[in-house]
Amino acid sequence: MLLSAIRCVSCFQLIAWFQVDSVPLQEFKSLGASLHVISYDDERTIVEALQGVDILVSTVAWTVLVSAQVPLIKAAKAAGVKLFFPSDYGSLFDNEPNPSPIIRDLKTVLRVMKETGLPYTYVHNGGFPEYCFIPQLGYNFSQKKVTVWGDGNKKSTWTTVYSLADWIVNVLKTFPIDQLQNKHLRIEGFAVTTNKVIKLWEQKHNAKLEVEYRPMEDLDNRLKADEDDFAAALLQEWSSGRGEIGGRDNGMYPEWKPDTIESVL
């Protein structure tokens, strides 16, 4: 999605990286990307690929937040990169009562950036509805069943992947790099409660959902039993109301028209 959004803006030179075993190279070539094969275990290959790069936008998976991004950060600093976007798109996870290993990894990445002196920009956009409205997180739409923790009346922030990519690319086109350095930016495609999601789905599909309400204590117990239960950490964030981060910085891209919730239900 990010590459597609960048392709629509002529002022960027696009560079994409892949590990040796990565497959879909031709698709990215067709988007105008200059391809480089790198190894996260070989800082030299990363530094070479970063020569002349001003902005590095990381989109690594959450399974490699530290193992991939720490080498990226060190190489980016060595190569003279002026701005780094860490792969930490989502909620803020401030004052998290049950910090999971993934949340601790996110904080490790921030600490390493500060220690190396690499300028960074965080974009907090809430959850990605395309990936979060799934059975593991309570939304089993194919079976017409939804599980709700708490009363379902707390709002959470949501932004689609494409809307996030569109916002980032246009902000990079508009703002000088020095105005983006060491910032935590908040954007919001839409904010909605779980009960509202249920209502909108039922209206769109002209069908009734079977809804089960469960106590918040269930999530606390899950995290006490398994701190790696990141699904429980996410559900706790959304069910408590901490998942609503607001769109304080939406106005940095005044023409932004984020996807609606109805478009993903």
Structure characteristics:
3-stranded mixed sheet, 265 residues, NAD(P)-bd_dom_sf, alpha/beta, Rossmann fold, NADP, 38% helix, NmrA/Isoflavone_reductase-like, 10 helices, oxidoreductase, NmrA-like domain-containing protein
In terms of per-residue confidence, which ranges show pLDDT below 50 for 5 or more consecutive residues? 5-11
SS content category: alpha/beta
Our estimate of the beta-strand percent is 15-25%
The overall pLDDT average reads 89
What order do the helices and strands follow? HEHEHEHEHEHEEEHEEHEHH
For the biggest β-sheet, the strand order reads 6-7-11
Number of strands: 11
Summarize the structure.
This protein is α/β, with parallel strands linked by helices and 265 residues long. It has one domain: Rossmann fold. 38% of the residues lie in helices and 16% in strands.
Summarize the SSE layout with pairings:
Blueprint: H1 2-7, E1 15-18, H2 25-30, E2 34-37, H3 43-49, E3 55-57, H4 65-79, E4 83-85, H5 101-116, E5 121-124, H6 129-132, E6 139-140, E7 145-149, E8 155-158, H7 161-174, E9 183-186, E10 190-193, H8 194-205, E11 210-214, H9 217-225, H10 230-240
Parallel strand pairs: 1-2, 3-4, 5-9, 7-11
Antiparallel strand pairs: 6-7, 8-10
Helix pairs in contact: 3-4, 4-5, 9-10
